[in-house]
Amino acid sequence: MQMPEPDAQLMARKPELVTRLREVLPDDAVIFEEAETRAYECDALTAYRCPPLAAVLPSNTEEVAAVLRICHEMGVPVVPRGAGTSLAGGSLPTADSLILGVARMNEVLDVDYDNRSIRVQTGRTNLSVSGAVEEEEFFYAPDPSSQLACAIAGNIAMNSGGAHCLKYGVTTNNLLGVTMVTMQGDVIEIGGAHLDAAGYDLLGLICGSEGQLGVVTEATLRILRKPEGARPVLMGYDSNEVAGQVVSDIIKAGVLPVAIEFMDRPCIRATEAFAGAGYPDCEALLIVEVEGSDAEIDEQLGVILQIARKHNPVELRESGSAEESAKIWLGRKSAFGAMGQINDYMCLDGTIPVSQLPYVLRRIGEMSKEYGLDVGNVFHAGDGNMHPLILFDANKPGDLELCEAFGADILRLCVEVGGCLTGEHGVGIEKRDLMVDQFAPDDLEIQMAVKDVFDPAWLLNPAKVFPLEASAERRAA
Amino acid sequence: MKPVSESELSEMIVAAEGPFRVVGGDTRPVGRVVDGDVLSTAQMSGVVDYEPGALTLVAQAGTPVSEIKRRLAAEGQRLPFEPMDHRGLLGTSGEPTIGGVVAANVSGPRRVQAGACRDFLLGVRFVDGMGRVLKNGGRVMKNVTGYDLVKLMAGSRGTLGVLTEVSFKVLPTPPSRAVLLIEGLDDTRAVAAMTRALGSPFEVTGAAHMPVGMDGDPVTMIRIEGFTDSVEYRVGRLRDLLSEFGAITVETDPERTAAGWRWVRDVEAFHERAGDVWRYSVKPSDGPALGEALREMGAVAVLYDWGGGLVWALTPQGADMRPAGLRGHATLVRASEETRARLPVFHPEPLAIQKISQGLRDRFDPKGILNPGLMG
Ligand SMILES: Cc1cc2nc3c(=O)[nH]c(=O)nc-3n(C[C@H](O)[C@H](O)[C@H](O)COP(=O)(O)OP(=O)(O)OC[C@H]3O[C@@H](n4cnc5c(N)ncnc54)[C@H](O)[C@@H]3O)c2cc1C
């Protein structure tokens, strides 16, 4: 993955930049010593690293605006950063850029149970938003697996999803309003605790824009009352086709589970060795979870189990207690860790139409043989969001490149069958160059024109999302 | 002009000199009057792809909403956001199209729980003001590839491009439903009751209050949908939860409940009554005070949906009914052409947002030929 050449002239102006930043921020909020800027050299796509020119950690919207005005004036590129858990390189800096981290902005500003909303500073972590409303049995629905660490800022920028979004939607469906600072330093308010936007849906546009349109400093989020209970079932099948059919039949039967998770044999084996959850050794495993009161759960599971049985499962395990439920989820939740135990891995997240599942899994299996790299599949089957995990050895020369080529082929396959490159992780630098496989030149041009409106000088996170070649002219101007 | 295909539409726009008034079924003429050649999407019609097992449907923009509903009903599914039919309220005729629903981001009572049209919209194809054929999103449920222009196009009312194809996430229609009815509450108590219901774990899919109900008395309506035993269970729990608000009756008859929510959805209480119609989106707890302020300003009737967060008002003709200090926003949905030329139909935007909106229009429609002036 290529990054643009840093601007040497800008780098030479580092002392001036630092001086000016320290005029508007407390001393400890400006980080410029080389040993310290290293902390910001990468996100969770750790194969790519580059320390920024400097980093700032403002504590409110006004400070963010002051920083952006300085950078705008000096022409310094700015890379917004939440918790740095992006898997796509979204918060990877360049050597001539400033990291603007919102980690210190983690306050809850207002909890409003009557209007089912919460207002937070965006540096707050995802899980601690739910934590803030737990005592009244409310929760914030989008639940990325990284929820302990990732910030609402990154969730909004990536439009993150989670295991429960089949029922509750992703970030964009649970975001009511934002305060955002434009690259020019203007503070704008969009939305609020009311349900629909006035004028154009700028809220929808900003969500998922990967830190390229503005820096989001505060957010109003929808909170929901917790369901009375939840219970999973586990089912094993001896073919991916059959498991795919079960998913489709459940959906057609009118049940809406909160989650339908799918694991294939390589992944089942790896997690069994790692976590010992007692999963059957079979081709395909499904975990289906439903919510409600006990009686409601029984009613829904009745329908689901009937469908499951019709397709001759090799295993069908209902949970009878909280411990059994935890055990059913244990393997799924340790899947990434388990794969990481075996080797380095790259996690993809292309989405496909659910009906294409068996075909795509078969093709991935064939490609795995061609490339000589193992791959395990664990994903949100209800919505077709795949997570192939390709194993490689970072210490073996050429293995990373091979793995990236394999990954690119899988993503092209997703697009080919009517899906897309990324369902929840974002484009960042990782899928930037594949954008031409999903979009025609005009489709990319109109998206870049949107960035022109918000950030005419292309200073905000400029080397992301669009193929470098496509954005070159704009970045140079 | 009635193009039959995307490419023909593109050619028409490339060749165009004057402005276009872009319409689907022309049943929702909301916004400042546009003086231009009528450009209708009605001939680009038909369901392109429907996979009930994947909960996805793709249709050409001109497809009648009725046809889509029929196709979905045959598989026991529906558009979850319950789009309003504007014909009765606006006195229009014609066939509402799915493109029109998207262009105006039309939702109904279920929006409070399930989400709006924009939340179920997975992808769009459209032709912009330069005749470029563009696409964004797709037909899969999760997609964060590039900017979300799908949301931007929803509710842009033909000012950024002419929609040619739209794809949706759909949902199963639950087999059973019930409506709890409480009579005689004033607005504040009604919103309190709805707030309690919506803040419960019982998945309320509609919460509306009519200060003057079908039989003249105030009525508060709370809807539950789902499997039969589950609906019965939740009705029981909600009865207990809401007991302090007065006597509760429960309606489960499919026809009567459907008619009741259609009445709310389409604002039937204002049909064939003279006056302008304003629509307000506010924080639900601000609803009653807004209702009060509107009555003081002369509103003849007020109703509440979305637990108090959506307020409709029937008002004297020609009056500016935006109370000072309104938090949220107001839309003038029905008024004479003269009024719509004089009063901003959509809520005036702060300068910084105005600049962005205008900037977007300049990029998507540099010649200014698609519904110019309709939104500002
Ligand atoms: C183990 C693991 C599991 C994961 N599981 C999931 C999952 O289940 N679902 C999922 O969707 N993702 C998942 N992710 C990916 C990642 O956690 C999400 O993308 C997350 O939202 C990133 O949040 P962050 O705060 O760490 O953002 P960062 O990595 O700091 O930044 C992400 C992007 O947001 C931008 N940004 C940051 N702050 C701002 C701001 N204030 N204003 C504007 N833009 C900003 C950045 O420039 C960057 O482009 C996982 C990651 C890991 C490591």
From TrEMBL, chain A:
Residues 48-226 form the FAD-binding PCMH-type domain. Its cofactor is FAD. InterPro entries: FAD-bd_oxidored_4_C, FAD-bd_PCMH, FAD-bd_PCMH-like_sf, FAD-bd_PCMH_sub2, FAD-linked_Oxase-like_C, FAD-linked_OxidoTrans_Type4, Oxid_FAD_bind_N, Vanillyl_alc_oxidase_C-sub2. Keywords: FAD, Flavoprotein, Oxidoreductase. It comes from the Bacteria. Pfam families: FAD-oxidase_C, FAD_binding_4. GO terms for molecular function: FAD binding; oxidoreductase activity. PANTHER family: GLYCOLATE OXIDASE SUBUNIT GLCD. This is FAD-binding protein. The lineage of its organism: Bacteria, Pseudomonadati, Pseudomonadota, Alphaproteobacteria, Rhodobacterales.
Automatic annotation (TrEMBL), chain B:
Pfam families: FAD_binding_4 (PF01565). InterPro entries: FAD-bd_PCMH, FAD-bd_PCMH-like_sf, FAD-bd_PCMH_sub2, FAD-linked_Oxase-like_C, Oxid_FAD_bind_N. It comes from the Bacteria. Residues 1-173 form the FAD-binding PCMH-type domain. Signal peptide: none annotated. One of its GO terms (molecular function) is FAD binding. Keywords: FAD, Flavoprotein. This is FAD-binding protein. It comes from Marimonas arenosa.
